[in-house]
Amino acid sequence: MGSRITYKRPDGKDAAGYHAAASSPGAPGLVVIQEWWGLNDQIKGICDRFAAAGFNVIAPDLYAGRVVPYHDREAANTEMTSLNFLEATDQVVRGAAQKLKGDGSAKVGITGFCMGGAMTILGAARVPEFSAGAPFYGLPPAAAAGPADVKIPLQGHFALHDDWCTPEAVKTFDAGLKKAGKTAEIFEYDAHHGFMNEARPDVHQEKAAREAWDRVVAFFRKQLG
Questions:
Q1: Where does 94-205 have alpha helices with state H?
Q2: Which domain holds residue 47?
Q3: pLDDT at 162 over 90
């Protein structure tokens, strides 16, 4: 089990998040970005699982303590659309990566889900501390970070039944990565948006979640050491 921490942003302001430590000192670092529901217990559980797999993990609290219940999509959308994504990436997310490096992680990766998947790609384009990224069913607007802007290896995980991060959008993004000569692999699953979230039985797909988990852990072990 992890705990809540505070850490410094690059601009010197304070940020907060959930920290789950690996058992070995100097383990590779991983920044985990929340869904649009906030830094809830399910995301903390993902962090604990990554820590058990050998990573030092921080999940930044992008909503400053606000957690939206799963039934309230309107409130979740309000929280997400009020977030300054570029500032959050450059300050809160980058600060978490710098914290992990300062604590002894030689390499740091980034992953995230839904909204966090889109921010993973922003981080892959904008944060020099990251060495690898794994977005789950989220893409940012191309004007914010397109395939050509990605600077690190990516492993993407997407759902074939998704009306937000659609298969067509994924196909376009994948083609852009290939055209730009980026190191990337894209996996698509016969599942719905949010399939990794075991706290939501309406969308969770156990087989897809298990396959994606095994792939992402192997990817980060390879890329981060």
A1: 94-102, 115-126, 167-179
A2: 3-224
A3: yes
